[in-house]
Amino acid sequence: MITAYKCKACGQMMYPYHYRCIKCGAREFDKVAPSDSAKLLTYTIIEQLPWGFDERGRVLGVIEFTNKVRAMALIDVDADRDEVKLGMKLSVHWEPVRDDYGEKVYGIVCRPA
Amino acid sequence: MKPVVIAGAGMIAFERRDDDSLVDMLAMASLRAMDDAGLGDHPVDAVIVGNMASGLFNHQVSVASALVDKLSLYPAAAERIENGPASGGSAIKHGYQAIASGMADVVLVAGGEKMREVIGPRATDVVAYMAQPEAEYVYGVSLPAMAGMFARLYMKKYGVTAKHLAQVAIKNQANGLLNPYAHIHMKITMEGILTHPDSVVSNPIVADPLRLYDCCPVSDGAAAVVMTTPEIAKTLSSKPPIEVAGIGQATDTHALHEREDPTDLKAVRIAAEKAFAMARCAPQDVHVAELHDAFTILEIAESEHVGFFEKGEGAKALANGVTSLDGHLPINPSGGLKARGHPVGATGVAQAVELVWQLRGEAGERQVRDAVNAFMVNFGGFGNNVVATVLRRES
Ligand SMILES: [Zn+2]
User: Fold this and answer.
1) B369 at A interface, C-beta within 8 A
2) pLDDT at B273 over 90
3) Which domain range does residue B223 map to?
4) Is the ipTM above a cut-off of 0.85?
């Protein structure tokens, strides 16, 4: 799973890593593990994917974990895309999200909770 | 700083150009700008090329040096400026700095991209290299996908509808019909792209809620301007020099999800504020604008963020015809990225070329009346590096 970073000076949560806090510029952070549930802030359903994907209707979204960490994620709803709703509760998993010349690349995968 | 003007402007038609290399396109556009400026044998001190990805699209780098060679402009200094889709706007900014600092008297700025050398999904992938690598790109995100996620929130928050988005496309493609340099010359209607049942086929979803006609085409093309001092410009030709009155640039977080309010295009807002402050004028003083409508939602959102309209009022202004060619504030008279096309590194320069023509009264059938102040936004990444520019006709 991803690691998020909490600024020791101002408490700002960050992912991915920055060398300086995006809010106050401080350089020391506590590592934070995201919680295992999240809600969906926004999403899209991509019908024309870039090179390297042999699929249609891939759902990508921005999620906010219960502990306020935010990230982009693959939203796995099988065939039922009407199921996807803003604000919906999601379970969070760490699974392959793309195939890079035969090598599995891992990322955040969410399913309706 | 010394005042800086655009003395000459030129471009080639944006389209699929299989027979021309990137450097050929840059050279053809450059010659038009040089001739337009009446440059003759006057030396060019520096050549600046705005281009995003010649190495990936065309297997060629150091394209500014290659352009100097094609045009035999040695020993001019030469650099390529890369700032994603805002490479053109950034290249103009660097031209400005070279003249204003006194380091150069005459600078040729050319923007170009040859994207159709690769197949569509490859081009989408190369453009997606702008995204944050491990937090965004890895998921298969594309620029239309980022725009789709942005649009979903913006539409909900400000009451923008699919019909409003279609109105941007219809307006800009209508303007594009009047622009011989535009890639897309096709009249579209609300029925054809939205309300008729067959529109789900003719205008399919690309990245929900955005459809095909909400997205700019993938194009090849180049545009160029000659920048110099007002004094030198007057010795070259009798055409009115166009003052580069203000330039502002601003950045924002790389990853979309790290923006406190993902509907706030902070970099657009700050870049515009800086450009207007430098030009000592206000959004209300603008007579014509070229905004970066890579996606229809962006024209509406940018028109609000730069201060033309209050938040939530941009779509209404559009619907009321305010931003049409015959409206109070015409936006994208060229057809914008939507109709002119978006050869990434060319776009910012092409926006400036269009505005120079508008300010001089050389824009033909799409001429806006009596424009003195013109404004452009060149939007890099998904809004994480934005260049805004004010151009002005000397009165
Ligand atoms: Zn901090």
Assistant:
1) no
2) yes
3) 5-119+218-236
4) yes
